[in-house]
Design a protein that fits this description.
The chain is an alpha/beta fold and 791 residues long.
């Protein structure tokens, strides 16, 4: 990892990935391994984070029914006119009868007005009345969810995230011994909580008391409103689910944060999912993290970056590459780069890569693989030649995007109140997902028009909102809470314009339709950084002495960009993220970006000198068509480019093309792979969150170039142009191109699949390998174009 330029690790303990019995989770042997890992990281100058527990979302064998996640369940029964007593014993151990109600009419025709019935022990007393009538009964009990992806010995229920006692019990049972084993604050940079996936958890024994304290009335008589989406219950549902958010923040997030600080380390969290976490809940964290990509939508990375920007936390990370070009070993360096750019466009400047599966050298090729992630490890065939260039690139990009302050003119008010009011007990109470869906096309319209935005809510500091944003947009809102109204009134009093899209809320706001939003915005504040291209995104950071713009082509085809900046400039520089070299210019910024290429533009009001970019090829080219091929499975042979070697043999590794050429002065400067004649690959039918770069690929998949025996560089991403002039000489020159494929052909072997089948038989179905059938898609490697030497 260190040799590849990776700066740290996050230790994650998950399910067994081999049939043999693994070390028991939490045993002394296990803790000794944790200790060794932390010391090894410290000795190499690496950051060391650790997840507080196995799998997610917090739980395990130490969690009893008292501390396990709980939910409400509703059951209906239609009865006649006579009075009766109905016995309702719990179906599952630990179930508790909460309340019962009755309504006129049969199910589906019943009145929305329910009357509460008397409970006598585990029975419901039903008075006489009309016929038919519908009885609704609410019980509480365990969700039944077990810890996801649990290690051997960690199996058990998921934690009740609404209970302070449950949270402390988990931290004392798992957090304390693991942190101690890892060397505490001496070795551990941060403890980590992954995304919240506590499905259907909407109850805790303390919920009635918590609700009474926060809302001022008893929720039990009105709980039936959680069963039905009828509008008459909207106010109660908003109160109830808002209370869940608050209780989760106070009894889980804040407790974990305090515990981490008391132990001298930091708390890093992915604060979204279920329980219904709010953006402002990130205030209970030292380090903020998101995940997922999609710069024209509202991924969790945007959710997290918005919180970081408002809370003054400059470094914001993202769980990256979790579902990249599956299955695991199929991901190429270009895929990693393309997805990383998308995260940066969402405000991310720190990549937490998923992941590096622990894999002994003597296991079946290509080694163990996590059920998700891109198998970022030295078991990948391209690792030797491309890992250092890839991670140097990402390191440089992360570093430069931490300078200055992020600029976002627009604050989008999150429609929590509508989301809460429309939740029902059967659905996933995911505040990020449901609220983001209510925003419709507004995020995409803003980004493609040259505006950037942050997501905001009433729990954030109004002064910071007014300092950072010029306009607040309300969209997807038909109702606002008391806190919303108070915060928005304060924002408006500071002169910030509030635009209400397709809503008659807030009389003081400017009301308009989504189709009129951009034209109205332009009359208030011009676009900040407009590329003029729907597939090219930009992020702006304001420096002390200039402006910095990250501009990325998210398309598989070359694209022209004309960067129009609102902040005037006299000169500019375009920085090459690969090597830090730059070109200078004055006046308008026009340039060409290769597929998935990004550049940093830095503008200044100081005068500058214009210079031509040193990477522009010109003059006649020298095609290199004839090569000798050294392939491990074949005899040395003479071939002509374009040339492809067969991946159907399940070969994993490298083959070397060598050519000797006589050169006379002046010498060429660049070795160039022309992709213009290659078709752009079609997108495969992978899951939506799986990122795959679809640019034309002249290789399969990376190539190290040696000129006269010296390492000259690596081809791994567009524009596939390598400066080699300093390695050439007058007369004879030997050019070698060592092409490496991915390790995915080895996943086709019967032995590899056998490992997973035997593992499942030995330990149960704890995971499903992601889209393993895609390992059988045709792959190709070789020199798929004619390399050219150019000046």
């Amino acid at each position: 990892m260190v040799k590849a330029g990776i700066g740290g690790v996050e230790l994650s303990c998950v399910y067994p990935i081999a049939p043999k019995q693994p070390v028991a989770y939490g045993s002394q042997h296990f803790l000794d391994l944790v200790s060794y890992a932390s010391r090894a990281a410290q000795a190499r100058g690496m950051r060391f984070d650790m997840t507080i527990g196995s799998g997610w979302s917090f739980g395990g064998s130490h969690v009893t029914s008292e501390h396990a996640a709980k939910r409400l369940r509703f059951e209906t029964r239609v009865v006649g006119p006579h009075s009766q007593t109905i016995s309702l014993p719990g179906r599952w151990p630990g179930d508790c009868l909460i309340a019962a109600w009755i309504s006129d009419g049969a199910l589906g025709e019943h009145s929305p007005a329910f009357q509460r019935l008397e409970l006598v022990g585990d029975s419901v007393s039903v008075p006489s009345g009309g016929s038919p009538r519908t009885i609704l009964v609410a019980t509480s009990g365990l969700t039944g969810q077990q810890l996801k992806r649990a290690s051997n010995g960690a199996e058990g229920p998921t934690l009740d995230h609404y209970s302070r006692e449950a949270t402390m019990h988990h931290l004392e049972s798992v957090g304390d011994p693991f942190l101690k084993a890892a060397g505490g604050s001496k070795n551990v940079t941060a403890v980590f909580c992954d995304s919240l996936e506590v499905y259907h958890s909407d109850w805790s024994p303390n919920m009635v008391q918590e609700f009474k304290i926060r809302r001022g009335y008893d929720p039990v008589p009105l709980l039936y409103h959680l069963w039905s989406p009828h509008p008459s219950g909207a106010l109660f549902r908003a109160d109830y689910y808002r209370t869940l958010s608050e209780v989760y923040e106070d009894n889980f997030l804040a407790v974990c944060h305090t515990w981490a600080r008391q132990h001298g380390t930091k708390f890093r969290v992915q604060n979204y999912g279920q329980p219904p976490a709010r953006i402002s809940g990130f205030r209970h964290a030292d380090m903020i993290e998101g995940e997922s990509w999609g710069w024209l939508t509202v991924p969790q990375s945007r959710w997290a970056a918005s919180a970081a920007h408002h809370l003054g936390i400059n470094v914001v990370s993202s769980e990256t590459w979790t579902w990249i070009n599956s299955p695991s070993f199929k991901a190429r360096p270009l895929d990693f780069k393309g997805e990383a750019h998308d995260h940066v466009l969402c405000g991310i400047n720190h990549f937490i890569g998923h992941g590096w599966p622990s894999s002994p050298t003597n296991v079946v090729s290509p080694g163990w693989a996590f059920y998700a992630s891109g198998a970022i490890s030295d078991r990948n065939a391209w690792w030797k030649d491309a890992s250092r260039p890839l991670f140097s690139y990402l390191h440089r990009l992360s570093e430069v995007m931490r300078h200055g302050e992020p600029v976002a003119d627009i604050g989008i008010w999150m429609p929590y109140e509508d989301t809460y009011a429309n939740f029902t007990h059967e659905e996933e109470h995911n505040l990020w997902r449901s609220s983001s869906m209510r925003l419709g096309e507004v995020p995409r319209l803003l980004r493609q028009a040259g505006y950037d935005y942050d997501l905001i809510d009433a729990g954030l500091d109004v002064a910071v909102i007014c300092q950072r944003h010029k306009v607040v947009v309300l969209t997807g809102c038909t109702r606002l809470s008391k806190d919303d109204l108070e915060a928005l009134a304060n924002i408006a009093s500071q002169g910030i314009k509030i635009l209400a899209v397709d809503s008659d809320l807030l009389p003081s706001a400017i009301h308009l339709s989504a189709s009129d939003l951009i034209s109205k915005l332009r009359s208030i504040v011009p676009p900040d950084a407009h590329t003029g291209h729907p597939g090219i995104g930009a992020v702006h950071r304001r420096l002390a002495d200039g402006e910095l713009y990250f501009v990325a082509n998210t398309l598989p085809t070359p694209s022209s960009v004309s960067l129009q900046t609102r902040t005037p400039h006299s000169s500019w520089q375009r920085w090459n993220i690969h090597d830090g070299l730059f070109e200078s210019g004055t006046g308008p910024i026009h340039s060409q970006l290769a597929p998935y290429e990004a550049a940093i533009y830095v503008t200044s009001q100081k005068d500058g000198n214009e210079s031509k970019g040193s990477t522009q090829s010109s003059g006649p080219s020298i095609p290199l068509e004839r090569w000798s091929l050294e392939h491990p499975l074949h005899d040395l042979q003479e071939v002509f480019a374009p040339h492809q070697w067969d991946d159907s043999e399940d070969f994993v590794g490298s083959a070397t093309y060598t050519s000797t050429i006589q050169l006379a002065a002046p010498l060429p400067s660049y070795l160039y792979l022309d992709t213009s004649k290659l078709p752009t690959p079609k997108r495969s039918a992978r899951r939506d969150q799986s990122f795959e770069a679809h640019a034309a690929d002249p290789l399969g998949v990376v190539a190290a170039v040696l000129i006269n025996g010296q390492e000259a560089g690596t081809f791994w991403d567009p524009p596939y142009q390598l400066e080699i002039g300093r390695f050439l000489q007058t007369g004879a020159n030997t050019i070698a191109i060592r092409v490496s494929n991915t390790s995915v052909p080895a996943m086709r072997s019967g032995d590899w699949r056998k490992i997973w089948e035997e593992t499942e038989r030995a330990h149960g179905r704890r995971f499903i390998m992601q889209e393993i059938d895609y390992a059988y898609e045709p792959t190709r490697s070789g020199l798929l174009v004619i390399p050219e030497l150019r000046r």
